[in-house]
Amino acid sequence: MHELLRRARILRCDAADPGQAFRHRLRIGVIVAVLIFLVSTFG
């Protein structure tokens, strides 16, 4: 569990620019969606 929380902290974006934070969240969301798709298709 500690390892999972450490990895989640790495993914955080503490940018002051809202546009940059939005792009970061969008990228992470797309990556998670692709991983879910791959696992559901091939797993």
TrEMBL record:
Transmembrane segments: 26-42
Keywords carried by this UniProt record: Membrane, Transmembrane, Transmembrane helix
Protein name listed in UniProt: Uncharacterized protein
Organism expressing this protein natively: Cereibacter johrii
